[in-house]
Amino acid sequence: MIIPLLFIHLLNLRAICVSSLLTSNVKCDLSNLSKVLACITVCGITLSADAVSIENVKVTSKALLDLSINRKAPERVEIGVFGNDAPVATKIFLSVCEGTINGDLSYDFSQVSRIKKNKRIDIYKFSQGSAQKQETYLDEVGKARIRSVDLAANYVNQETNNLRHDFDGAVSVPRGGKSFGFTIAPRANPDLDKENLIIGEVLSGMETVEKVNNIPVSREDILGTKGSFSSLGKGVDPRAKLAAVDRPLQKVQIVRCVVEETASLPSFLKF
Fold first, then answer.
1. Are 218 and 242 members of one domain?
2. Fewer beta carbons under 10 A from the terminal one: N or C of the chain?
């Protein structure tokens, strides 16, 4: 009943506007607009006149990823980076690709950690360098302990742009930063808009992306409790490993990442 209700409110609004024009009242009565917007919100529909077409976005640099699937010869995926639309986020991405963050942290030898077919391919598993450091602290009884600190928490951004995951091959990172990982969307996936910020697109190598997209992954158990129980365990003990749901059953690794045509950015954006 929600969708019909939306159209009823839209028709009511149209009738009010037409009536106002016929009575020479140029100012349209929008008293029902709040109801329409509320219905749109309930329906989960987003209307935006500000969305930017991907054809109008400038590629300022390129990242070349050599992907190896199941230990086979690497295949190249070329990513065009939108430095003007997300300068801080793209700089972080390119710096990891070049290996200039934390000395040796790099996408080289990193692996695909999650695949949701036709929705997202996540690269969050690092092998080259470290995304964490060890620090000593005193617990509540004064005993010295060691904990891991995520270095990505130091690399944040408050950026936003009007790009949407409405095309195949969108490349994005978590909004706000605090992560060195990135995501490739094999298909248009508007559900990623709230979570991720688009920083680029796949320019070539979509056939390789499609191969990764079709790799078999681990599944939830029949009762649907595998993920929930592991999350509960993670809350009790941060050292607990999450259940491997949507984990690729074949190894997908970036054996090499190279940056080309890096755009010049202000010095305050350099790490």
1. yes
2. N
CA–CA dist 232, 56 (Å, integer)? 45
pTM: 0.70
CATH number of the structural domain spanning residue 68: 2.40.100.10
In degrees and rounded to multiples of 5, residue 40 shows phi and psi of -60, -40
Q: What was the pLDDT predicted at 134? A: 78
Mean pLDDT estimate for the chain: 77
Q: Is 37 found in the same domain as 86?
A: no
DSSP at 217: B
Backbone dihedral region of 238: left (phi > 0), alpha (psi from -120 to 50 degrees) or beta? Answer: alpha
| Rounded Cα distance, 157 and 161, in Å | 12
Residue 97 forms part of a structural domain: yes
Task: Looking at the structure, tell me whether residues 136 and 32 fall in a common domain.
Answer: no
- On whether both 32 and 76 belong to a single domain, the answer is no
Q: Which token pair is 102?
A: 């934390």
Residue 269 clears pLDDT 90, i.e. is over it: no
pLDDT at 215 over 60: yes
Check pLDDT > 90 for residue 29: no
Interatomic CA distance for residues 246 and 202, integer angstroms: 22
State whether the Cα torsion 167-161-61-97 is positive or negative: negative
Strands (E) across 34-104 are located at 61-69, 75-81
What is the rounded CA–CA span in Å between residue 249 and residue 74?
18
pLDDT digits (tens, 9 = 90+) for 149-208: 778 888 898 999 999 999 999 999 999 998 899 999 999 999 999 999 999 999 999 999
Kindly state whether residue 268 falls inside one of the protein's structural domains: no
Helix (H, G, I), strand (E, B) or coil at 110: strand
